[in-house]
């Protein structure tokens, strides 16, 4: 039995803690905030409830496996998993709308064909077939196993057919152009790059697996909000004997030549450990917490990456019901390239005409009554920064956040969803707020982006160069999002079991 300290009570940290606890390790989770969940947060006011982080659950099998192996079924812990159908309401710049089914790529292709006409149905079927092939080739080496560098993929490289399938030097945008003649379908694919905080013009073709997974395995809501998943996981860890220290800031991961020895808190207290699992942002870990020369190489690699985009969020308490509003809504900009240039270009700035995502669950537990709606509004945004670093905006600058809120509300009105005269109140969350709340540098949602062919190999490995120090969560392998974070916890628990 090892003494394990987990730094951070996000979903990755709690999932790793649960898996390690059932293996009879002594686990303590240390969290700088006053509560658990990390980016999987919630906000409540006047009976309105908002998920302030992930708002969609895909590949629920990841969490079914986690809960089954730590004491009981997922549904017994969270209550009802709601299979969304339709899952998304899309509005394209020409005004055409599509209600996307929640599952089955073939059905989705038919719906797209009916709405868009031409060869849209056949094109989407062909694109999904290619995505399915990429998924089969990459699922094990890229998602379910540790990845420390390009050499781990040598078996894949020996099969030229697999290499052609994955197309490692083709962008997601390039793959979409090969299969999809309708620019609206290509716009739909572009959106999936933002699931990893990336630019579709630079993100790899392998991200075609993201829409495939969504349509193949379904899109789910947890009754009462996705935050209920964090509540259930926290309770499961308590049942397994995991201890928590909240409002306890880790100042340093302590090491010797032999490996980690524990952590030092901000007040000077030392927690001794045989194993440290960092659910902190990888850049924060290697730059600020690990004062060990063995962390220099991972930090050097991180500095060669492009950080992921951030998000500007509005929480809107809306009076009345909105015809045609779906659980998930995406209203596209007329110029997606301008949006990505505003975020990733040399002259970063708030996007003037952004794509707008709205999550408005038809869930009575998330609103005061059936005559109101809770709108979580998200637009892609540059990271926060105060030193003029490329790709950043000072979101704390006077006169920026509130006028930009008004701009987003105007864009929503221009696209047919004017709620300004129905607002009871609103809350604004900027990338600076995200950075302050989660210690994610600049408010980067996913740590590093997937921009560039080598991005997967620059993402920090789960096993650090320091014996006994492991990384879990969205900023380490295999990446961000609830399913991948859950997979990273399983990888880390297995690695510790082998050590």
TrEMBL record:
UniProt keyword annotations, A-Z: Carotenoid biosynthesis, Oxidoreductase
Coiled coil: none
InterPro entries listed in its UniProt record: Amino_oxidase, Carotenoid/retinoid_OxRdtase, FAD/NAD-bd_sf
Pathway where it operates: Carotenoid biosynthesis
Residues covered by the Amine oxidase domain: 11-343
Family: Belongs to the carotenoid/retinoid oxidoreductase family.
Protein name, as recorded: Phytoene desaturase family protein
């Amino acid at each position: 039995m090892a003494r394990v300290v987990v730094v951070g009570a996000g979903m990755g940290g709690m999932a790793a803690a649960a898996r390690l606890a059932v293996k009879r390790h002594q686990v303590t989770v240390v969290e700088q905030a006053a509560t658990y969940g990390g980016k999987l947060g919630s906000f409540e006011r006047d009976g309105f409830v908002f998920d302030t982080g992930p708002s969609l659950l895909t590949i629920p099998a990841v969490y079914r496996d986690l809960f089954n192996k730590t004491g009981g079924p997922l549904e017994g812990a969270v209550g009802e998993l709601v299979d969304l159908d339709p899952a998304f309401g899309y509005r394209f710049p020409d005004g055409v709308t599509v209600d996307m089914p929640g599952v089955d790529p073939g059905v989705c292709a038919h719906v797209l064909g009916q709405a868009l006409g031409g060869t849209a149905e056949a094109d989407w079927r062909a694109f999904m077939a290619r995505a399915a092939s990429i998924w089969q080739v990459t699922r094990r080496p890229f998602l379910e196993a540790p990845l420390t560098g390009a050499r781990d993929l040598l078996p894949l490289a020996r099969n030229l057919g697999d290499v052609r399938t994955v197309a490692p030097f083709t962008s997601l945008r390039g793959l979409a152009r090969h299969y999809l003649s309708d620019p609206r379908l290509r716009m739909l694919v572009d959106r999936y790059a933002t699931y990893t905080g990336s630019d579709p013009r630079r993100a790899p073709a392998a991200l075609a697996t993201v829409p495939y997974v969504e349509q193949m395995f379904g899109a789910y809501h947890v009754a009462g909000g996705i935050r209920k998943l964090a509540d259930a996981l926290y309770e499961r860890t308590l049942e397994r004997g995991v201890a928590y220290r909240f409002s306890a800031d880790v100042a340093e991961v302590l090491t010797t030549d032999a490996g980690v020895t524990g952590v030092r808190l901000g007040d000077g207290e030392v927690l001794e450990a045989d194993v440290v699992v960092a659910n902190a942002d990888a850049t924060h870990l290697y730059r600020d917490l690990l004062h060990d020369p063995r962390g220099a190489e991972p930090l050097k690699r991180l500095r060669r990456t492009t950080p992921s985009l951030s998000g500007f969020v509005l929480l809107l308490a809306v009076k009345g019901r909105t015809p045609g509003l779906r659980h998930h809504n995406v209203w596209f900009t007329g110029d997606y390239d301008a949006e990505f240039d505003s975020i990733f270009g040399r002259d970063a700035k708030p996007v003037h005409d952004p794509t707008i995502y709205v999550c408005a669950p038809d869930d009575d537990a998330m609103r005061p009554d059936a005559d109101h709606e809770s709108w979580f509004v998200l637009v892609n945004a540059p990271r926060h920064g105060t030193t003029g670093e490329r790709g950043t905006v000072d979101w704390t600058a006077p006169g920026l956040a509130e006028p930009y809120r008004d701009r987003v509300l105007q864009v929503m009105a221009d696209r047919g969803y004017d709620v300004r005269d129905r607002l009871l109140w609103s809350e604004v969350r900027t990338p600076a707020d995200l950075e302050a709340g989660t210690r994610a540098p600049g408010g980067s949602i996913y740590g590093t982006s997937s921009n560039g062919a080598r991005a997967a190999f620059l993402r920090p490995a789960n096993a650090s160069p320091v014996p006994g120090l492991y990384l879990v969560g969205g900023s380490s392998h295999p990446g961000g999002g609830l399913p991948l974070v859950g997979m990273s916890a399983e990888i880390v628990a297995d690695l510790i079991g082998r050590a």
